[in-house]
Amino acid sequence: MTEQQTYNAPTIEQEIDVISTYRLEEAASKVVPKGGFDYISGGSGKEFTLQRNDEAWLSKGILPRVLADVEHPDTSTKIFEHDLKVPFIMAPIAAHGLAHATKEAGTAKGISEFGGTIMSISAYSGATFEEIDAGLNGNPRWFQIYMSKDEEMNKNILDEAKADGATAIILTADATLSGNRERDLENKFVYPFGMPIVSRYLTGSGENMSLNNIYAQSKQKIEPADVKFIAEYSGLPVFVKGVQTPEDAVLAIGAGAAGIWVSNHGGRQLDNAPGSFEVLADISEAVAGRVPIVFDSGVRRGEHIFKALASGADIIALGRPVLFGLALGGWKGVKSVLEYFETDLKRVMQLAGTQTIEDVKHARLYDMKK
């Protein structure tokens, strides 16, 4: 039997001691089957951009501030109608079932128990809307769409997402085909379970299908008109995800985007691209406060959240560290990871002399290249 036919995802549920999210990756590699772990943790090509996402943080330093009259920093913020207790949310990631048997429902419960944040649900989820909703227990959610080539199918999926309670739509625009994911090719990776949300427009359920095969059945040609269609049909705010240039940010806003999502897909798409953090400030300057900016790719510490906020982001989306927490402890592990980021961010804010998230956004970073 292949690994996919006998895929044994972790099942343990326990709180985990998070010293560093970097250590979580190594620990998760020991409990998640190799094909699934490489899919979660890997990047495209030589993984230059994956590595660059991490190294890019070193280009800017946080200036310690004293005599700042700061105690018990307040991490609360707001985006659209949502009051959040932290400036970070869950990024949309496919196939949580590779990390844990409870799939996205486990992640949802961890987010619900933490409270005060948002889950982004991927169209490539291995769980149903109903299963995820049970875990979220009324907590807010956004929905990320990979568009079908069939416009009526897109309407049906958007209708279902709205009925499920989605308050924003995320259009992932940087994945019209799969990046050159060499680990997946070497492992001959296929999904070990189906994808109930998008299976309606796939030839097959998603089970035993490769990412290349699934992407090939989705819409490849994404244009500004798609942003306009989703915004007008859904009546919800639309984020364009995968923006890496000021030009695309301006195009997206002109097409009706209510938010810009700066991301390079965690280094999984175009290799030899810059780290996501390296392009954030220029995009923020072009956006000029017209719409909120969500940022992801390479976020592993409170310092990273601080630097992204200080460089123009309004909200940070967490990805792989949450799935590593899921693998190591189920929903309790997810909650542990979110608590780690909250505690770590508060520590950084205190030492940097920033009382509120608005203070962080106005903090001056130091150019480490001087």
Question: What distinguishing features does this structure have?
Answer:
single chain; 370 residues; alpha/beta; eight-stranded parallel sheet; two-stranded antiparallel sheet
SSE inventory with pairings:
Layout: H1 21-29, H2 34-41, H3 48-55, E1 60-62, E2 77-79, E3 82-84, E4 88-90, H4 103-114, E5 119-122, H5 129-136, E6 141-145, H6 151-164, E7 166-172, H7 182-187, H8 211-216, H9 224-234, E8 238-243, H10 246-254, E9 259-262, H11 276-287, E10 293-295, H12 302-310, E11 315-318, H13 320-351, H14 357-361, E12 365-367
Parallel strand pairs: 4-11, 5-6, 6-7, 7-8, 8-9, 9-10, 10-11
Antiparallel strand pairs: 1-12, 2-3
Helix pairs in contact: 1-13, 4-5, 4-13, 10-11, 12-13
Description:
The protein is of the alpha/beta class and 370 residues long. Helix content is 40%, strand content 13%. The protein has 14 helices and twelve strands. It has an eight-stranded parallel beta sheet with strand order 4-11-10-9-8-7-6-5. α12 (302-310) links the parallel β10 and β11 (315-318). α4 packs parallel to α5. The longest helix is centred in the last third of the chain and has 32 residues, at 320-351. The termini are far apart. The model has no long low-confidence stretch (mean pLDDT 95).
